Amino acid sequence: MKFALGIDIGGTKTAIGLVDSDGRIISKTSLVTDLTITPEQMVGRMADAAMALLSEQGLKPGDLQGIGIGAPGPLNTKLGQIAEPPNLRSWWGFPVVEAFRQHFTAPIVLENDATAAALAEKWVGAAKAADHFVFITISTGIGAGIYSHGRLMTGATGNAGDIGHMVVDPAGGTCVCGQRGCFEYIASGTAIAREASELLGRPVTSKEAFELAFSGQHPDMEQLVSRVFEYVGVGCVTLINTFDPELLVIGGGVSQIGAPLFEAVSSYISRNALNPSGRNTPVLPAALHQDAGLIGAAALVHISY
Ligand code: ADP
Ligand code: ZN
After folding, report:
1. Of 111, 140, 205, 237, which residue is most buried, by most CB within 10 angstroms?
2. Partners of 152 in beta bridges
3. Is 134 helix (H, G, I), strand (E, B) or coil?
4. pLDDT digits (tens, 9 = 90+) for 161-205
């Protein structure tokens, strides 16, 4: 059996795990992404945690097939660097691959976290049989991984699929990126919580917003949720018209809401996708949840993409 070290770096926590060549997590741990220390120091902590996982399993760094790193974009996989992710400010421009090379001799690969999660869905998840699919994650933000013609489409610098900043409704508010009405500004978990809080004049989570909408007692909240579902439909139709996928896979915290989202999105697609076969594109829930990033990072090592 061959082992990869998967590292999924996030703005709040970093997951680290040993994953075998069947996609099984042998052992894993998680660290708080401490933004008060330098990224070099944080990488040192990750390396220590990885060494501990290896020794618990009676393995040595030399037993690693490779190290896969998933990180939030924008990044630059050509240079092995983090670029400008909004919630990892102190890491901007950080040569993360080089930093890991100080600790390991195994090959190191870096990809955008949503791209890595798409590869995980292809490897052991909902898209095993697909040669053409798009994985969409709707959580704090919105991102995607594009798999086309049996390969990941990563782009020149690893930033392909950053659909969170595709403009869906120019009448929407101004996004962190400077554009108005970006997909994630109007349809992410953060967007739902922000708009629900404005409606009720108190802090409301996206989960609570959904509960209120489905209670039948809050027409305003119902309207908000159906508008968001329609925006997700708009985003999906654009992806279908652009990439002609066999299927779409939706993951991320907001997708936990389940059937109401999937039904609304499928209905929008059936009415609005341009080509007739596109109107029947299946929209499946992601098979992997909390561990998608970790398995995806390891997939970068285990399978060719
Ligand atoms: P992250 O963005 O850190 O990857 P998640 O994928 O868990 O985290 O997404 C967090 C977002 O998803 C939040 O906006 C949260 O309110 C929302 N969310 C999480 N679980 C649910 C749920 N069961 N139903 C609806 N929204 C949820
Ligand atoms: Zn934007």
Report:
1. 111
2. 147
3. strand
4. 999 999 999 999 999 999 999 999 999 999 999 999 999 999 999
Residues 180 and 216 in one domain: yes
Is there a domain that residue 120 lies in? no
Q: Which CATH number fits the domain that encloses residue 158?
A: 3.30.420.40
Amino acid at 116: A
**Residue with CA closest to ligand 1 atom 19:** 253
Report whether residue 290 contacts ligand 1, using a CB cutoff of 6 Å.
no
282 CB-near residues (< 8 Å, 6+ apart): 246, 247, 248, 266
From the CB of 101, is ligand 1 less than 6 Å away? no
Which residues are paired to 31 by β-bridges? 14
* Number of domains forming the structure of the chain: 2
Tell if the pTM clears 0.90, that is, is over it: yes
Q: Are residues 176 and 54 in the same domain?
A: no
Instruction: Say how many Å lie between the CA of residue 190 and the centre of ligand 1.
Output: 9
Q: Where are the alpha helices (DSSP H) in 157-258?
A: 183-187, 189-200, 206-215, 219-243
Q: How far is the CA of 185 from the centre of ligand 2 (A)?
A: 7
Domain that residue 295 falls in: 3-113+291-302
Give me the percent of the chain exceeding a pLDDT of 70: 100
Tracing tokens 């929407």 back to the chain, one arrives at: 172
Verify that 280 and 138 share a domain, yes or no.
Answer: yes
Token pair 């995806």: residue: 296
270 lines ligand 1 (CB under 6 A): no
**Do 131 and 174 belong to one domain?**
yes
Binding site membership of 157 for ligand 1 (Cβ less than 6 Å): no
d(CA 1, ligand 1 centre) in Å: 34
Do you know the residue count of the chain? Answer: 305
108 and 167 part of one domain: no
